[in-house]
Amino acid sequence: MNFFKLTLSIFCLSVVLNLDAQDKKFKIHTIAFYNLENLFDTINNPLKLDEYSPIMGLKTNRKQAYLQKSRNMARVISEIGKDVTQNTPAILGVCEVENRNVLEDVVNDSLLIGKDYGIIHHDSPDARGIDVALLYQKSLFTPINTSTHELKIYDDQDGKRITTRDQLVVSGQLEGDIVYVIVNHWPSRRGGEARSRPKRIAAAKLNRRIVDSLQTQDPYAKIFIMGDMNDNPNNPSLKDALKTQRKRKKVGFKGLYNPYENFFRNGLGTTAYRDNWSLFDQIIISKPLLEKDYSSFRYYKAGIFNKNYLITSTGKYKGYPFRSWNNGGFSNGYSDHFPVYVYVIKEVY
């Protein structure tokens, strides 16, 4: 947003911006998403294939690894957006979590407990027990309604149902403004990108139906679509099925803007594989968040949270995200994905 000039004055969850040569004071919050990379507990669930999670493969020090993994996740969450807002995210979508208990351990860490995060989590039918969830600061966001939406996809060879993550929809008030958040973790590229592509297109179509339903109820709904899409911003699932736009000026009524498409065009990513960067983690926003009336919260800017400590510093994977699990052990890293975030601002009168 080149018509804004952010000054150095940052205080009390607010910033001073220069708009048309007149200083105005704005409240600012971070809304973020983070793939927590196999945040599983050490207890075997006989109803799920959680024994295939990396932590269950550890022969020793399993409990210590779990506690450090939880601590590491809390550290990252505590710092996303803090440089600007002086606060942790008001709303944070997460994926690759096993259950509510692991999230409780994260938000009750000493780095986060003072923020009093609430948790919205539902068990999904995913065979391994991998779920999505939403964390929110209770003092800033008040949930109104939650729902989960099942994605029905099938194997292209034997026709059997493939169980995967539900899509989580949460509506609520962000300091009085009604917003909607859709948390996603779309099907992986296992078997190859082309072969698995229809599964992600199906996920995008489900997302589109959810958006259409919300916009039927409220054409001016402020919607945040976030998640690990396992596709880049220029892939057909996002461009054709979800119908995202790269340029703000091309976002029509009921349209969707994806700021991460420009990031991707500029060579940035959130996860790496075989020396290639992908930008699978994205936050997409609806048209009303782009308006210039700042009497309610509007989109300000987007980013990728890729601080130096989140990057592998040596070895074969130097420059990659510093992941938690590697070579059958716990590396004391963080995740194989960088978090993503957007700032929203609202004028303070």
Describe the protein in words.
By secondary structure, this protein is α+β, with helices and mostly antiparallel strands. The protein is built from 6 helices and 21 strands. The strands form 5 sheets. Strands 1, 2, 3, 4, 5, 6, 18 and 21 form an 8-stranded mixed sheet that branches. Helix 1 (62-79) packs across helix 3 (100-107). The protein is globular, with a radius of gyration of 20 Å. It starts with a strand and ends with a strand.
Topology:
Blueprint: E1 5-11, E2 14-19, E3 22-39, H1 62-79, H2 82-85, E4 91-97, H3 100-107, E5 117-121, E6 131-137, E7 141-149, E8 153-154, E9 161-162, E10 167-174, E11 177-185, H4 193-217, E12 223-228, H5 236-241, E13 244-245, E14 256-257, H6 260-265, E15 271-273, E16 276-278, E17 281-286, E18 298-304, E19 325-326, E20 329-330, E21 340-347
Parallel strand pairs: 3-4, 11-12, 13-14
Antiparallel strand pairs: 1-2, 2-3, 3-21, 4-6, 5-6, 7-10, 8-9, 10-11, 12-17, 14-17, 15-16, 18-21, 19-20
Helix pairs in contact: 1-3
